[in-house]
C-alpha cells in the first residue's frame, strides 16, 4: 500500500512540475530600493567635517570607525554599489534593521551625508 501512496505523490509532483514549466508565474514587481521615488539628491558642496561628525554620532556604532561594517554592512564602497537616491532613501527611511533618520536629522544633513558617502568608491 505504501508503494501506491508514493506513486500517487510522485505523480502529483510530476504534474505540478509540468504545470510550473508550462505556465509562467507572474513577473515579480519591483519594490523597495529599486523603485524610482521621483526624488533626485541635489549635487551640493560636501561639508566633510559635518558629515563625518554626523556619521560619528549616528552611524559609527553599527558601521564601524573605518566604514568596515560591524552590526551593519560595510560602507567603504557604498558609492560604487548604490546611487545617491538609494543611499538617501536608506538613511532617511531605514529598513533591513537600520533605523530611519528622517525624524532625527534635517534633510540638509541627510543630503550632505548622502553626497559624502556617495564618494566612497
UniProtKB/TrEMBL annotation:
It comes from the Bacteria. Keywords: Electron transport, Heme, Iron, Metal-binding, Transport. InterPro entries: Cyt_c-like_dom, Cyt_c-like_dom_sf, Cyt_C_IC, Cytochrome_c550/c551-like. Pfam families: Cytochrome_CBB3. Residues 46-121 form the Cytochrome c domain. SUPFAM superfamilies: Cytochrome c. This is C-type cytochrome. It comes from Paenibacillus chungangensis.
Amino acid at each position: 500500500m505504501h508503494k501506491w501512496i508514493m506513486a500517487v505523490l510522485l505523480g502529483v509532483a510530476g504534474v505540478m512540475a509540468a504545470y510550473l514549466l508550462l505556465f509562467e508565474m507572474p513577473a515579480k514587481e519591483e519594490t523597495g530600493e529599486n523603485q524610482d521615488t521621483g526624488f533626485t539628491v541635489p549635487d551640493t558642496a560636501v561639508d566633510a567635517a559635518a558629515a563625518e561628525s554626523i556619521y560619528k554620532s549616528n552611524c559609527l556604532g553599527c558601521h564601524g570607525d573605518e566604514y568596515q561594517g560591524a552590526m551593519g554592512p560595510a560602507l567603504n564602497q557604498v558609492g560604487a554599489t548604490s546611487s545617491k537616491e538609494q543611499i538617501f532613501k536608506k538613511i532617511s527611511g531605514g529598513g533591513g534593521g537600520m533605523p530611519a533618520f528622517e525624524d532625527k536629522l534635517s534633510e540638509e544633513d541627510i543630503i550632505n551625508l548622502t553626497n559624502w558617502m556617495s564618494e566612497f568608491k
